[in-house]
Amino acid sequence: MTLAEPKLGTATHCPYCALQCAMTVTGHTVEPREFPTNGGGLCQKGWTSGSLLGSPARLTTPLIRVDDELVPASWDDALDLIARRLTEIQAQHGPDAAAIFGGGGLTNEKAYLLGKFARIALGTSQVDYNGRFCMSSAAAAGNKAFGLDRGMPFPLTDLADADVILLVGSNPAETMPPFMQHLRRAADANGLVVVDPRRTPTAEQGSLHLAPAPGTDLALALGILHAVVADGLLDKSYVDERTRGFDAVWRIVAQWWPERVERVTGVSAADQRRVAGMLANARNAYILTARGSEQHASGSDTVSAWINLALALGLPGRAGSGYGCLTGQGNGQGGREHGQKADQLPGYRKIDDPAAREYVAGVWGVPAESLPGPGRSAYELLDALGTEEGPKALMVFGSNVVVSAPRAGHIADRLAALDFLVVADLVLSETAAMADVVLPVTQWAEEDGTMTNLEGRVLLRRRAVDPPAGVRTDLFVLNGLATRLGQPAHRFPDDAETVFAELRAASKGGLADYSGISYDRLRAGEALYWPVPEADHPGTPRVFLDRFAHADGRARFMPVDHRGPAEPTDAEFPLQATTGRVLQHYQSGAQTRRVKELNDVVPEAYVEVHPDTAARYGLAEGDWARVSSRRGSASVRVRCLASMRPDVVFLPFHFGGKQRANLLTNPALDPSSRMPEFKVCAVNLAKEQS
Ligand code: SF4
């Protein structure tokens, strides 16, 4: 790796969420930069992100476990050990005994090279990533409905002209505050409707807040669609000309009249009809969904239900209106396009498609028959670790599964059962602390790379500062391991721009076609939304205006029905717990818990509970409570909130140890996306005995 001289004022983008706010980094100082998505703003996480660059918590040398202690080692010794152990384990148990777990925060280049490393250097099918926990249900639903999954198929700034926006299961006032400026016009026109079981800071800003019981918003979408049809608001010409499948949907929706839906969801029939009228009568309207809809065992169907509503109203693919999914992780969109998913190859190609295998194998210079087939999805992969049938070795990049995976106590046990665990990270996360080898890697402002933001716009993150001595890039790690495993070095370049050039070729002709994008075009400031199939193609800010991506150009209604949460409440576990984020922290908190300004504000986990519910369990504000599910218990501080539903409690999922919300969560999987049901599980409360 060549080290760059420190530069003053490098234009780059935030290390955290999918808004990818623009910033200028000077040394370890961050300033916001004007850009369409953030309008010159940053949230607290972005403003304080520079402190991570000089953080004393950074890892600066590889660590190897010796006699149950992690001790410093040289890079050569660490990489030699990894290559030797992976070779031994695969020789004994077969290629699938080694597994890779990636992340939705990795750059496009890392995601691409990680998938290639798994399939070629290791020859394993066992590769997946934490985006499976994050956006996979919307991806599955988008592919079914539109034939293409570009989360937001229009630029964010289009939202500024909307009269009505229905925001489902999203809390951007905390997760991505600069996004709220795009909702202002709708909010000012009394047209911002927020669907969330909690009265979040976003719901506070809405003109109407619908609070369905957790796990029932599929039913709510059916009820609003019923009202659309019953009140004569269906956009019949759009349905006839641009879609297929409405009749099958109506056969189900006809059974879900608003009064019946009210009994299931708790949302009044009057509010359902009001929302139907608001959406249908608006000049410009949007429906946006996020994790609240997706993270369910019926998450794909739930998103499909909201897309059905959007199609019935004629919103998708119409200028000034639409449906979109708000991705969460920094590269949530790009992370799912380049081959780190168990079932995919670069260009958003299916790994079991013979033509796709032939094409990608040609780019990689290997026989198509040498590429493994689809592997286990994220939770299934983690659940199988160390079992007789499952992988015996795991390498983790950009993920902290001990905190972020559902049924986290069980997942920690599975990691402990491995013969060999490697973690590449910036800091000693909870997962890294369990590893046999820890590799200290660069972070956002210390490396070049591209990210694809929530709009499908490809952005260049630039290297602004040198990393600490002893730290290397993930690309360096993959190159060093691949060559030790017998691959030619040129097949695994450690330079981001060179990797991107190959990614372009591998994506050509795929759904997510990046072949016309280059670092030079990005450096020149071009706004390039994929697909960009030629070097002189201007990009595609709005993808569905003329036609949808199915062969006949029409969108598909999907017949879906309400199922409810996978885990019912009962006398032993009478409350429903839901989980989410807070303003000051990001994902597993591995980074933000190490930023003093953020951690001082929210230093510990808590449970939000209605005061009457708290009193019923002998709990008061500030007490420590033990929240228990069928899978484990978390110890968290009590916060009493009168706005909570009495039957629901909320826990943020950013904290480690006994405060992990995911000790409770249910790994029931969506049959289509394989996403776990993070958003609802049955729990009880008790006072924590100190
Ligand atoms: Fe912007 Fe998200 Fe970074 Fe906050 S965390 S500054 S909203 S990109």
Automatic annotation (TrEMBL):
GO cellular component labels: membrane
Gene3D superfamilies assigned to the protein according to its UniProt record, in alphabetical order: 2.40.40.20, 3.40.50.740, ADC-like domains, Dimethylsulfoxide Reductase, domain 2
One GO MF term: molybdopterin cofactor binding
Domain 4Fe-4S Mo/W bis-MGD-type: 7-55
InterPro entries: Asp_de-COase-like_dom_sf, MoPterin_dinucl-bd_dom, Mopterin_OxRdtase, Mopterin_OxRdtase_4Fe-4S_dom, Prok_molybdopt-oxidoreductase
UniProt xrefs under Pfam families: Molybdopterin, Molydop_binding
One biological process term in Gene Ontology: respiratory electron transport chain
UniProt keywords, alphabetically: 4Fe-4S, Iron, Iron-sulfur, Metal-binding
Record's protein name: Molybdopterin-dependent oxidoreductase
